[in-house]
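Sample pair:
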Amino acid sequence: MKKSVFNISALLFSLGCILLAACTPNEPTKLYISDAEAEALIKEGTCLTIEQFKATYMTEEGNYCMPDLYRARSKAGDYYLFTIDTIPVSDTPIYIRGRVTTDDYAGNFYKTLCIQQMVNGKQQAIRLSVDAGSIGGLYQLGQEILIRVDGLAIGRYSNQPQLCLPSYNNNIYAYNADQKVGWAAGRIPFAIFKARTQCIGTPDQSKLYYDTLQITDYNHITDLVEAREWDAKLVCIENVHFTGQYDNNGTLTNCTTGDPETDGNANVFAPTTENMNYPQSRVIMDAQDNWTLVSTSEYAKYAHFYLPANNYWGNVVGILGFYYDNGLKYSQNPPAASDWSISIRSVDDLRLYDDDEHWLYDANGDYKPGYEYSKN
């Protein structure tokens, strides 16, 4: 009798969660600890840098039971875009630590945290996939956290590394959905994440580090392994402006003046996607016409704000992302500038001024009147 792949997969995932729960500390974990308490915990185990963590546990193909067809279809060149590597349970705790660089209050980050760690003056970063909405209320911007990672997993989704758990993906509505059916990087249940994560001290945004970049520092990178090292970094892109364009399959096209609730190309940060729920991208450009994208969820609170006029120049701050989703088209459609984007945390990340040095915001720090979309 032919067995149901989905039922077997669900059973395996359930058993995995049971095993993981068994290796989660039985005693309640203190949510906040001091630096001294963090160091004492680390001495009882091993603390890896973020890059050491990736290099130690993230393999090219992954070790979870992806079907052969899915494994082949997730391949791009000699690399795999969708993988999961389980991290063995250890009697000696294995930790990573980092400072939270994301804030989900404005709605552009959903069930995701990014953390950074400074090592020898250089930023290392990774995404954390956690099944909890409004998670930024607990793990706030600038908060340093210590995470016990043994028993969890590290995976890649569209080449983006992330701390995760295995999840069986059968989303028939996704882009290139038939290529993605199988095991993928899934969210960590919040109860498990909370039991394994402790806040060191209190949030301190002054300790966040920003890589100050020009667009040309990264948008030419097409090597998938190198791109993984750049993904999730907190950056400041200098001397750019919004052009009022979007990326139309490699061609920059002017946005329209339509209603963003019905027109997916309207001149706002993220108009409708007709329930497809993918981020919308808008072009920023430097004085030499090098361009990159600003990526916004249609659920962001500022999704229907008009784009800043193209005479507003300055810096754009946010999380750098490399999202490459062309597993079957690598030879015909290799990585390109359009696979890079900046995800701002709110419109406060736009440090833009017009020709007369008037700030994008009014005297109260609010977005200038007239920029928020109105049908009237």
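Helices lie at 5-22, 35-43, 50-57, 68-73, 190-196, 224-230.
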